[in-house]
Structure formats: C-alpha cells, structure tokens
UniProtKB/TrEMBL annotation:
<dbReference type="InterPro" id="IPR027806">
    <property type="entry name" value="HARBI1_dom"/>
</dbReference>
<keyword id="KW-0479">Metal-binding</keyword>
<dbReference type="GO" id="GO:0046872">
    <property type="term" value="F:metal ion binding"/>
</dbReference>
<dbReference type="InterPro" id="IPR045249">
    <property type="entry name" value="HARBI1-like"/>
</dbReference>
<keyword id="KW-0540">Nuclease</keyword>
<feature type="domain" description="DDE Tnp4">
    <location>
        <begin position="171"/>
        <end position="335"/>
    </location>
</feature>
<dbReference type="GO" id="GO:0005634">
    <property type="term" value="C:nucleus"/>
</dbReference>
<comment type="similarity">
    <text>Belongs to the HARBI1 family.</text>
</comment>
<dbReference type="Pfam" id="PF13359">
    <property type="entry name" value="DDE_Tnp_4"/>
</dbReference>
<dbReference type="GO" id="GO:0004518">
    <property type="term" value="F:nuclease activity"/>
</dbReference>
<dbReference type="GO" id="GO:0016787">
    <property type="term" value="F:hydrolase activity"/>
</dbReference>
<keyword id="KW-0539">Nucleus</keyword>
<keyword id="KW-0378">Hydrolase</keyword>
<protein>
    <recommendedName>
        <fullName>DDE Tnp4 domain-containing protein</fullName>
    </recommendedName>
</protein>
Length: 424
C-alpha cells in the first residue's frame, strides 16, 4: 500500500511538472519580436540590399562579387536553399545575402540578426545551413582532385609564370582561430596559445586552391603534415600525380613532378623544400630564391582569402563542425570568383593586381595590399627532424644545378641574391 502511495505521489509530481512547463511554453512573451514583425518595412534585405543592386561598387563591397556573379551563384545554390514549410520562411536570396555578409565582414551574428530583423537563433541556422550548401554544391565543381592531364597543365603554368619546371602546386598550412569549444580542454590549443583548426592547402600558379584539408585540431601543429589527410596523401602519392617524369626545358635532365613547401615540410621526391642553414653557397641560395617565387602563390592565396572574407580577422565563435563548413565555403567561393571573373574576361574585382605581390623585370618585389590587411591566420610550426631519402636529396641537387644553366636561370637571379652583401 505504501509503495502505491509513493508511486502515485511521484506520478502526480511528474504530471504537475510537465503541466507547469507546458503552461510556461504556452504563455511565452511573444512568438515573434515586434521589431522583427517590421522586417518588410525596415529590414536590410528588403531595403538596403535591394538599393545596393543599383550601385555596383557598393554591391561588390557588400557581397564580394558583382550583381551578375551573385545571381549566377544564386542559380547554383538556390534550389538547395528552398524550404518546404507552411510557415513563413526566408527565400534563397535572403539566405545567401545574409551569409555572404557574415563571411565578408565577420560581424557578430546577433548584429546581422538585428539588421535583417530576424531572430538570433534563426540567423545562426540560416548561416550554418547556407555555408553547408555552398560547400556541398561548389566543391565538386570548383575544388575537385585534378586529373593527370590537369596536373600537367598546372605544371606548365608554373613554368610559364614562375620559371619553375616540374612544379605542380605550392603547399602550406594555417591555423584558423576559433573560440574554445565547451569542455574541449586542450584539444584545440596550439603552440601560439590560441585555439584553432588547421587549414592545409595546395594552390596553383593563379592562386586557386586545388586541394584543402580542414579540421585537424590546433594541438596537432607539431605533426600537422602527417596527421592531416592531405599530408598523408602527398607522402603516399595518392593524388593522381603523373607517374612519369618531366624533361627540364633545353636539357636531357628529367625529374618527377613535385610540390613546393617551406621548411615545415619534409623533403621527398614529390615535395621540394629550401636548403636549410645560413652560410649557403650561391647555388643553394639561388635554388631557395627560385623555390620561394613559386611558393609565394600559396602565401598570396591565403592573403586574398583573409582579405576578402574578414571572418578570418577574429576567432570564429561557432562549434568546430560549423567552422569546417565556413572555411570550406570561403575556399569554394574564392575559387568560384577567380574562375568566373577570368571566364568573363572582366576587370578582376575580387583579385586586382594591387592586392597580390607583383614582381618587376629586375626581380624587385612590390608587396600586395593583403600584407597590410590584419588577419589572424597563423603559420603551422616546424614538424621537427627531417629524414629524407637519398633520392630526394639528389633530386633537389639536380634542380639546383639546372637553375644555374642558361636554359634554367632567370636573368636577374645572381644579382638579386647578392644585393645587400659584398660579392667579389
């Protein structure tokens, strides 16, 4: 009998608790805030965004693209942004506009929610869903693994623009700062004393990203090249790289195709890095200089990315999965805009010549405007001792010798490396 009474009391307590919660849910202060009810008369999308369509320069400043490119992008992603719901929903153009504004400025989502007159939670969902759609729709077209023929075309472009035969891409990695996730401990804590995710990338001679690897936690910085999928794929030769060799122009010397990286990467037959040390011979200094000219493309690619998408100017305050989609969305948008602007043969608004490094005929470098832009993308650290194979050392020496021959040199290289020191 006592047990029945206790059980009845417990059931009554549960019933009253649920009834109380239900009553609190039914008597919420409002379903939609009064200021959001005036969206059509005061919201940024309904007024400011529509007015910007009449001002080309301000529209580009707002979205990082011109109006025609915006509608081209909307045609690609719009069908995936439609919502089938009996309740009022935000149209695809609205979703794309607020997301591009978030990526372009890095503003707090709460500020954008106020400007667009929607709820903060709704703004979070819209931005996260739209970034996922941008990544899923654009990546298969603008960020896919090159074929062997495409790798060969990339190599030809590196030779034409940067005078480095056999190079098929420049590799680098950056820390993308994030706000520390709840209960994450030191999982994302890196050597710079910040929390981050690592973005590993390969780019071509025209600053387009070829492959990216996103999501390795910042605490893995000392072993990034091995812990990332991209690093393992390079090391294990799983990227459709042509199996044969390329003949160096004007000679009978052959070399495998290879990527270029800085001192953080391990030397191998498909990864060339500079000669280490300070007191180097002219031969080694020339090789390092010529390698750095090609490797500068990945520095500029990251610079353009951070200058155009200012979400990278401060730690991203979202969970790591959402940050992964945001990073991939910006990379895909970067490739989309470079490709479409070149295809239309328009003035390159997204990447004008002044934004990137420029090289004069005598080798002097005019630094791009992106280097004056504040961003918090941090370099990955050195991965420690490098134990390369004898074949890798020999290949680097062969390239170094070739770059001193009449067919392999650039006219200004010796004068350039001797500037600022006495040479007799």
């Amino acid at each position: 009998m006592d047990e029945l009474i206790l059980m009845s009391v417990r059931l009554m307590g549960i019933f009253l608790s649920r009834k109380k919660r239900r009553k609190r849910w039914l008597t919420r202060r409002w379903w939609t805030r009064p200021l959001n009810l005036r969206r059509k008369s005061h919201g940024d999308y309904e007024h400011l965004f529509q007015e910007l369509k009449e001002d080309a320069s301000m529209f580009f400043h707002y979205t990082r693209m011109d109006l025609a490119t915006f509608y081209n992008l909307l045609n690609l992603v719009g069908p995936h942004l439609k919502k089938n719901s009996i309740r009022a929903y935000f149209p695809p153009e609205f979703r794309l506009a607020i997301t591009l504004r978030f990526l372009a400025t890095g503003d707090q989502i709460s500020s954008l929610a106020l400007a667009y007159r929607i709820g903060i939670s709704s703004a979070y969902e819209v931005i996260k869903e739209t970034c996922a759609v941008l990544a899923n729709v654009l990546a298969p077209v603008y960020l896919c693994l090159p074929t062997e023929e495409e790798w060969q075309c990339i190599s030809s472009e590196f030779l034409r623009k940067w005078n480095l035969p056999g190079c098929i891409g420049a590799v680098d990695g950056k820390h993308v700062q994030i706000q520390a996730p709840i209960n994450s401990g030191s999982e994302y804590f890196n050597y710079k004393k910040t929390h981050s995710l690592i973005l590993m990338a390969i780019c071509d001679a025209n600053y387009k990203f070829l492959l990216v690897d996103i999501g390795v936690s910042g605490s893995n910085s000392d072993n990034t090249i091995y812990s990332s999928y991209l690093g393992r794929a390079i090391k294990e030769d799983r990227l459709n790289i042509p199996r044969g060799v390329i003949q160096l122009p004007g000679s009978h010397i052959t070399t495998p195709y290879y990527f270029v990286g800085d001192a953080a990467f391990q030397l191998s037959r498909n990864m060339m890095r500079p000669y280490p040390g300070r007191n180097l011979t002219d031969r080694k200094i020339v090789f390092n200089y010529r390698l750095s000219r090609a490797r500068r493309t990945i520095e500029n690619a990251f610079g353009i990315l951070a200058a155009r998408w200012r979400i990278y100017r401060k730690p991203i305050s979202l969970n790591p999965d959402a940050v992964n989609n945001i990073i991939l969305a910006t990379v895909c948008l970067h490739n989309f805009l470079i490709t479409e602007n070149n295809k239309e043969l328009q003035q390159h608004l997204y990447c004008p010549p002044t934004l990137i490094d420029q090289e004069l005929e005598n080798g002097d470098l005019i630094q791009g405007e992106w280097r004056n832009e504040p961003n918090i993308l941090q370099d990955i650290s050195n991965i420690g001792p490098h134990r390369a194979t004898t074949a890798a050392y020999e290949q680097r020496d062969i390239l170094a010798d070739y770059l001193l021959t009449p067919n392999g040199e650039v006219p200004w290289q010796i004068e350039y490396i001797r500037r600022g020191r006495h040479a007799f």
